[in-house]
Amino acid sequence: MGTGRKRRLHFSKIYSFKCGKNTFDDDHSQIGGPGFSRVVYCNETGVSEVATQSYADNYVRSTKYTPMTFLPKSLFEQFRRVANFYFLVTGIMAFTPLAPYSAGSAILPLIIVIGATMVKEGIEDWQRQQQDHEVNNRKVKVHGGRGVFESREWKKLRVGDVVKVEKDQFFPADLLLLSSSYEDAVCYVETMNLDGETNLKLKQSLDATSSINDDSNFNDFKATVKCEDPNASLYTFVGTMEFQEQQYALSPQQLLLRDSKLRNTDYIYGAVIFTGHDTKVIQNSTDAPSKRSGIERRMDSIIYFLFLILFLIAFLGSIYFGIVTKDDLDGDRMKRWYLGPDRSEIFFDPKRAPVAAIYHFLTALMLYSYLIPISLYVSIEIVKVLQTVFINNDIHMYYEVADKPAHARTSNLTEELGQIDTILSDKTGTLTCNSMEFIKCSVAGTAYGRGVTEVERAMAKRTGSPLIVNGRDQLLDDANDSDSTLAVKGYNFEDERITNGYWIHEPHSNVIQKFFRLLAICHTAIPDVDEETGKVTYEAESPDEAAFVIAARELGFEFYKRTQTTVSFMEFDPIFKRKVERTYELLNVLEFNSARKRMSVIVRDQDGKLLLLCKGADSVMFDRLAKNGRQFEEATKEHVHDYADAGLRTLILAYRELSEDEYKEFNEKFIEAKNSVSADRDDLIDETTEEIEKDLILLGATAVEDKLQKGVPECIDKLAQAGIKIWVLTGDKMETAINVGFACSLLRQGMKQIIVTLESPEIIAAQKAGEKNAIAKVSKDSVKKQILAGKAQLDASSSDPYALIIDGKSLAYALHDDIKNTFLELAVGCASVICCRSSPKQKALVTRLVKEGTGKTTLAIGDGANDVGMLQEADIGIGISGVEGMQAVMSSDIAIAQFRFLERLLLVHGHWCYRRISSMICYFFYKNIAFGTTVFLYEAYASFSGQPAYNDWYLSLYNVFFTSLPAIALGVFDQDVSARFCLKFPLLYQEGVQNTLFRWRRIFGWMLNGLASGVVIFFLCIRALDPESYRKNGKTAGMEVVGATIYTCVVWVVNCQMALAVSYFTLIQHIFIWGGIVLWYIFLLAYGAMPVNFSTTAYKVFLETLAPSPSYWFVTLFVSIAALIPYYCYKAVQMRFFPAYHGMIQWIRYEGHTDDPEYVNMVRQRSIRTTTVGFTARSIARDNNLYHLNLERQASAR
Questions:
Q1: Residues paired with residue 879 on neighbouring β-strands, in sequence order
Q2: Cα–Cα distance between 360 and 382 in angstroms, integer?
Q3: Which of 1024, 1030, 1031 is closest to 1049 using CA atoms?
Q4: pLDDT band, very low/low/confident/very high, at 483 (cuts 50, 70, 90)
Q5: pTM
Q6: Helix (H) or strand (E) segment spanning residue 385
Q7: Closest residue by Cα to residue 1040 from 1130, 1100, 984, 997
Q8: pLDDT band at residue 1186, thresholds of 50, 70 and 90?
Q9: What is the pLDDT of residues 685-715, one digit of tens each?
Q10: Catalytically active residues, by annotation
């Protein structure tokens, strides 16, 4: 059944744009040529099956694997790690006679390691697939024939289908708007998932299809669309539609993009043009990359280094073995008779010594493989998974309002959280709450409003001083600082002087009345009156416009009705002392745009007066005031400056009366400009409005808070103190981005701004000329010139803080290969960087430039589909699980509900994870080098004969069971300092940024420690056990006894070394460290009790030989202490005399100075960096300004 149409407004008659009447221009002449070859047969099922078979379906996949590719791709992921590939090769070689151990003992650990990692990867990708499944199975109504629309999944949509999308639904594909529930076939669209903007966009179909307004009308509907091929440009669309044998030009005005939402419109009909991965939003995204952390990449370098050592010692040992083997037979005398050189075929044959040396080399490669920790990768995987469990379950990152905890969607990058150098953040929905609040205003030179902004609260909290607003103290407590629910959304105004009608008692009550009348009239909002309750709500094109109308309503000027030609509102009449209805005739709407920076309406009041009501940015409004309209200018400017310093967005309100002749002349020019079809139509409109918007009389200024998410200023301040740079990449216009920059203290008064834009006269002149090549050349030269000028300005005064602000058009040229490095140098030198009007592709390219250009770790954070490319390009992508859409979360590495949680995620979990992983890897290399050293030295003692010191299963289980669990416990539970101290001393985070815990010096230090431990263990054991009698019967210790004793000492030393390295003991760590030692003894008993053909050299060796011998226990104790003394002495000296920054904090905890404010502050001062962003820097700058101002006043007083 069809739905009745809304008879509200003919929007094309009150707005200055001209919809639905597109004319053909040069762009449409390209249809059918290269890049413009798409042909869509709308509603022609039989044809579209053939003609559209080459077009993508509407199924969208964000997973890394498919069921078909999981096994090969996952195996490739595992074996591209050089260590895993090496163990695969040695595992295969273990089946040959060259192997010094059994094949089973070599292959089993590899299967366990690879299998565990693949299971983890599979589970993570399955979770992504579940989210894809939810999106692909959403339902939409599709025309199935005979005028009947049936419900169908998104994934089954095809190019050419006609769909019906209802209010508050997302568009399932890129659609051509055919008609809507409005008479003019317009609809409101929210594009927050595409460009981050919450204001509604007005779209309109062609006049030719606007009358197809019912389900049944589509029975006979047929049309052919020829248009551009799929591309990533969100703001362009070129095409033609052939309908009823007529050709019509198509523009972006008719295109509804996937993932945008239908708002304030009951329904629309649309034809599917682009589906699935052909849609513009998906074209702006990239495939989910295989991300690897910097530590993991460096770990590969260490593995390569160990391989070099392994090959070197195997090569040198083989040369020695070949020389000695050649001399084994001296006539009838055999030097190494026990090797049987006289009856050996190859391995020890003196006559074939070179071949024997080659075989020994292969044997040695397998034998020395224990220098490489096979369980390292899987242990890291286990640790990272458990680290993500802690992140997911952190109650301090749980957002109770939305019932959303933090969610780490991948565990590969946890340590990268502790090494972030630059954060690239979206604005809308990430830093802000997507809501504006009317909080203050200045009317007739008097400031009204006692509300407190987030910035004011953050600055007061830091200084510990009470908030003084309009002469009154504001209590700063947890109640004020919590997420408060406003009684009226968008209205947070408190001032008893003008609320509840008390404005009539103010000295300039007539100005106040005009001020709020202007707010109630000068807008494009549409009221929606609830018939049951009579309550009025508003649908506005922007949230700040909605806030103005709501504020006017709450203060007694209630806008409730709009017709095509009138605006009606209720207001309190101070003469009759009651509410009265006012209806103004609406004559013209002069729209806001980024060039004009203002909006006006021309109305006729009930007395017949013609009024121009105007609101706009202070940068353009003050210049337009009449000489007799500047009565309150100085006071208003001062208030506007204060509001900006408090992080508020301001607009200036002014008006003027018009004469009939003046208006008549203007209106004729305005109508002529509106109806123009020339390329300079917009310029004609601007020139016409310039003539009327002058000689204004100032009323005052509004101040709305682009409501930041709770804790954003504090979070940014703490991240700045930690030395992290923050860039903002937003699709919003420049003015909006700058205001939010002030609100979150990325910008502040006094900070010099370098603005790169393409609004210069020569660019505008080139655009009027219309030559694309000329425009591109002039634009590029202009951007390059501005960047070089900014860099020169930066170099000339490096001590001053600078902010770089660049718009999307300029950014497109700044990212060209010959300019981008200069642009990056300028950006890195600035304290703040804000990129406005950035497309999703540009966000991704900027992220790539920062990541590759600086070589530092980058983090991107966003909440919409327009942020997907940026999240995937960054080293770490953080998705905000906001109110709209899940695209950012689905493509992110970690999802959090609020920006403020980033502080704890990085400074606490990031620092811990980085430290734990770094220490764990160093420990792994330590224990394997210690173990490998004993294997090498024993083989050297055995004349490089390929004889291992240990039983096959001793070798295999060393890494898997006896020493890995303590390392895993270290990686999961260790804390150098508590979470409270991580937040109190943010400079601690720089340990990760500067990579102090995983630099080559520390890695080689741990390797040297392992080498020293291995040498001490081997030689002390050999000297202690040989040639003394070991058993009561006088027998000396054999190979099985020496091997088991050395192995016991190694297990004791590496586990006790772990106990010395741990900073924070838990019960689990005690169990794993001491349990690993106990497990070795249990294994010796159990394995030794097995049949001799399986246990071989371990058969009852512990029970019958080792345990009864006192020398075994004495050697174990003595060797373990001796091997640990070097590390203990080094650590004691370093901690006492040369403590690192975390060591100083540990001393605070150890010596009980946590309650000594003077001592703590002394240490903390090293943690407060000299920052140029954040409210700390803002507060310091303000204090410095006050200090200099006082000095100037004192000097003038003298």
A1: 862, 895
A2: 36
A3: 1024
A4: very low
A5: 0.72
A6: helix 376-392
A7: 1100
A8: very low
A9: 888 888 899 999 999 999 988 777 888 888 9
A10: 426
Higher pLDDT, 731 or 285: 731
Q: Left, alpha or beta for 185 (phi > 0: left; psi -120 to 50: alpha)?
A: left
Residue with tokens 């090959």: 311
Q: Write down how long the chain is.
A: 1198
810: nearest Cα among 787, 832, 843: 787
User: Is residue 826 within 8 Å of 794, Cβ to Cβ?
Assistant: yes
Residue 589: CB partners within 8 Å, gap ≥ 6? 14, 15, 16, 524, 599, 600, 601
- Three-state DSSP at 780 gives helix
pLDDT at residue 7, rounded to an integer = 45
Residue 545 confidence (pLDDT) above 80: yes
Nearest-10 crossing angle of helices 103-136, 376-392: 30
Separation between Cα atoms, residue 228 and residue 234, nearest integer Å: 13
Q: CA 182, CA 180: separation in Å to the nearest integer? A: 5
Q: In the structure, how many helices (H) and strands (E) does the chain have?
A: 42, 37
The answer for residues whose C-beta is within 8 angstroms of residue 739's C-beta and 6 or more apart is 644, 647, 648, 649, 706
Q: What is the pLDDT of residues 757-785, one digit of tens each?
A: 887 667 766 666 666 677 788 888 889 99
1021/1042 Cα distance (integer angstroms): 8
Q: Is the peptide bond before 1027 cis (omega within 30 degrees of 0)?
A: yes
Q: Is the dihedral of CA 255, 259, 261, 267 positive or negative?
A: positive
Nearest 5°: the CA angle 728, 776, 867 is 25
pLDDT one-digit tens code per residue, 1094-1148: 888 888 888 888 888 888 999 999 999 999 999 999 988 887 777 776 667 766 6
Q: Locate 301 and state its tokens.
A: 């370098």
Which of 361, 177, 362 minimizes the C-alpha distance to 255? 177
The answer to whether 990 and 722 have CB atoms below 8 angstroms apart is yes
Q: Are the C-beta atoms of 566 and 587 separated by less than 8 Å? A: no
The CA distances from residue 1047 to 373, 693, 930, 1043, 1115, in Å, are: 16, 90, 11, 6, 12
Degrees, nearest 5: CA angle 878-879-885: 170
Residue 533, judged by CB atoms within 10 A of its CB (0-12, 13-18, 19+), counts as exposed
Q: How far apart are CA 829 and CA 40, in angstroms?
A: 50
Q: What letter represents residue 1182's amino acid?
A: R
Look at residue 163 and tell me whether its pLDDT is greater than 60.
yes
d(CA 1025, CA 681): 99
Q: Which two tokens stand for residue 953?
A: 């299963």
Q: Look at the alpha carbons of 133, 134, 136, 139 in this order and tell me if their dihedral is positive or negative.
A: positive
CA separation (Å) from 555 to 76, 508, 572, 722?
67, 16, 9, 44
Phi/psi region, residue 800 (left: phi>0; alpha: psi -120 to 50; beta: rest), is beta
Which pLDDT score is estimated for 329? Answer: 65
pLDDT above 90 as % of the chain: 33
Q: Quote the tokens at residue 161.
A: 């289908």
Name the average pLDDT for the chain.
82
Residue among 621, 636, 626 at smallest CA distance from 735: 621
The helix (H) or strand (E) run that includes residue 643 is helix 633-645
pLDDT score of 1071 = 93
Residue 860: name the closest of 727, 989, 746 by CA: 727
What whole-number distance in Å separates Cα of residue 648 and Cα of residue 646?
6
| pLDDT at residue 1140, as a whole number | 73
CB 431 within 8 A of CB 740: yes
Give 804's DSSP letter.
E
What is the average per-residue pLDDT within 892-897?
A: 90
Q: What is the amino acid identity at position 473?
A: D
Residue 721: pLDDT band (50, 70, 90) is confident
The per-residue pLDDT for 1148 is 66
What is each CA distance from 909 to 28, 86, 872, 977, 978, in whole angstroms?
55, 33, 21, 12, 11
Return the bridge partners of 424, or none. 727, 860
The answer to whether 809 touches 779, Cβ cutoff 8 Å, is yes
